[in-house]
Design a protein that fits this description.
The chain contains three helices and four strands, in the order E-H-E-E-H-H-E. By secondary structure, the protein is of the alpha+beta class. It has one domain: 2-Layer Sandwich (Alpha-Beta Plaits). The protein has a four-stranded antiparallel β-sheet. Strand 2 and strand 3 form a beta hairpin. The model has no long low-confidence stretch (mean pLDDT 92).
Length: 102
């Protein structure tokens, strides 16, 4: 079953650009992994500086393997160092999706 993983980070003051760049690098690293379906980056609308990512994987195992890869692990550790403690990390089983017809 496909899985959606959501992560939200609040950068420590002065680290907003670094966190955004690390999220972009993580997108690139994950896109090369087996089982990758989709990745999105976003910024919060509340003015609190939140930055985040959504990744969709073919399975929970594919997402876990990708996150445990040496390259991704290094990027995630750096994200955690440059962000406030306790980022939001959630996973959801996808029930389906719809795209607007072309």
């Amino acid at each position: 079953m496909a899985i959606l993983r959501l992560s939200i980070f609040t950068p420590r003051p002065g680290n907003e650009r670094r966190v955004a760049n690390l999220l972009e690098a993580l997108d690139t690293a994950f896109a090369q992994q087996s089982g990758y379906v989709l990745g999105l980056r976003f910024t919060g609308t509340g003015g609190d500086g939140e930055l985040g990512r959504i990744f969709v994987w073919e399975s929970d195992q594919a997402g876990q393997r990708a996150e445990e890869s040496p390259e991704a692990s290094s990027l995630v550790r750096r994200l955690q160092q440059l962000s406030q403690p306790d980022p939001t990390e959630r996973s959801f089983h996808l029930q389906g999706y719809a795209l607007r017809p072309s």
